[in-house]
Design a protein that fits this description.
The chain has about 400 residues and is an alpha+beta fold. About 45% of the residues lie in helices and about 15% in strands.
């Protein structure tokens, strides 16, 4: 029976330290954690592997579409509360983000979705009156690692453990893992590696086929009593077929051309298309916004699916920023203020029209929507009595 008088246990039990995590080997407090990504583990553990994945044309195109869908959306800053201090904190943050280029920062941080985690360094400055951000620089992910306590460390030459980083200096997030024991997250690159690998090998075979189809392989036949010199002359004749308009061969030897089967082209093209479709599904969760297919209804449905993915990306960046940098700035400059929140509205105006017409009818019946409903339905940036 539950003992209601027993106090709560405040310490963490299922830690990843000192060999308590059965999914990892034993780690001492001096060790760094390594990513549990199975592809990275099997291929050497270096994130440069995924940089090569990003060079694929379909990966680059679809992932750019996903990032641009976020950065092209409207953004703003709302106060954490109605008091003067909270409103001043929001005004400062809005000015800071406009000055440092929030869209550019967001676009770079979204690569964390691809690799699994992202890190940005806050370059703090002061204008003589307030602490502000001189810049927010997104750093290369593989320059950092995590220790067994989950602390972010900077990897530098000559220091296998990396340097412990100061607090309130780096903004970072991880995403994609199915648990909180993996500080590196699990990025899209994990699922994209094999489709890209198969696609590249398929293209390599396709190029070989086209080379054979354009210039068939030459086959030379020499008699059993041919000398080494005659064999060399025959081989030279075979090699000259690709460049010369006429050749000569020794008497008694034959040359024939081996042509590739013409039907193979269809199979290669279909295979590449299949891999491209797999890549689009991983990045966008659908294919119709990259490949024209299906009817209008299906296209609208899949576009809605893509918008849900994009909205999740925007929420990831905004939420982690609001819980870190926005809180730090507010605490330093406006003690007691409720921290402001940056937001992005990932919604198309055409989607709002039927909803707005319905709300107008209900309002005419004497019902007034709450501010929470308005913000949830039409996005952030609304206040009682009108728009800010």
């Amino acid at each position: 029976m539950l003992d209601r008088a027993a106090p709560p246990l405040y310490r963490e039990v299922a830690t990843t330290q000192d060999g308590r995590d059965i999914t990892r080997a034993y780690w001492s407090s001096l060790d760094l954690l390594h990513p549990q990504d199975s592809v990275l583990r099997d291929k050497g553990g270096d994130y440069t592997l995924y940089e090569e994945v990003l060079r694929d044309d379909q990966v680059a195109s679809t992932f750019q579409q996903r990032r641009m869908a976020v950065t092209s959306a409207e953004w703003g800053v709302i106060p954490g509360g109605p008091d003067r201090q909270s409103r001043l904190a929001a005004e400062q943050l809005r000015g800071v983000l406009e000055r440092i280029g929030w869209d550019n920062v967001t676009e770079k941080m979204l690569y964390g979705v691809f690799y699994g985690y992202a890190v940005a360094e806050c370059l703090w400055a002061t204008d003589g009156r307030e602490i502000t951000l001189g810049a927010l620089k997104v750093r290369k992910q593989r320059r950092f690692a995590f220790d067994v306590q989950g602390n972010l460390r900077l990897l530098v030459p000559g220091n296998s453990r990396g340097e412990r980083l100061p607090g309130r200096k780096f903004w970072h997030f991880c995403t994609g893992a199915d648990h909180d024991d993996e500080p590196y997250g699990l990025g899209l690159a994990h699922w994209l590696y094999w489709p890209v690998y198969f696609k590249r090998n398929g293209i390599k075979l396709w190029l070989i086929f086209m080379d054979k189809f354009g210039m068939p392989t030459a086959k030379g036949t020499y008699p059993a009593n041919a000398t080494d010199e005659e064999k060399r002359r025959l081989l030279a004749a075979l090699q000259a077929i690709q460049t010369d308009s006429g050749i000569i061969i020794p008497e008694g030897m034959q040359i024939e051309l081996l042509e590739a089967a013409r039907g193979g082209q269809v199979h290669y093209e279909g295979f590449i298309d299949r891999m491209n479709a797999a890549i689009a599904k991983v990045v966008l969760s659908q294919t119709m916004t990259t490949d024209a297919a299906g009817g209008l209804y299906k296209s609208e449905v899949q576009k809605s699916v893509r918008n849900e993915v994009v909205r999740a990306d925007a929420d990831l960046v905004c939420d982690t920023f609001n819980r870190s940098v926005a809180v730090w700035l507010s605490a330093w400059n406006y003690p007691g203020a409720k921290p402001p929140r940056v937001w992005r509205q990932i919604r198309e105006q055409s989607d709002l029209r039927p909803q707005a017409e319905r709300d107008k009818i209900i309002y005419g019946m004497g019902f007034r929507p709450s501010l929470d409903y308005v913000r949830k339905t039409y996005g952030e940036g609304w206040q009682e009595g009108g728009v800010p």
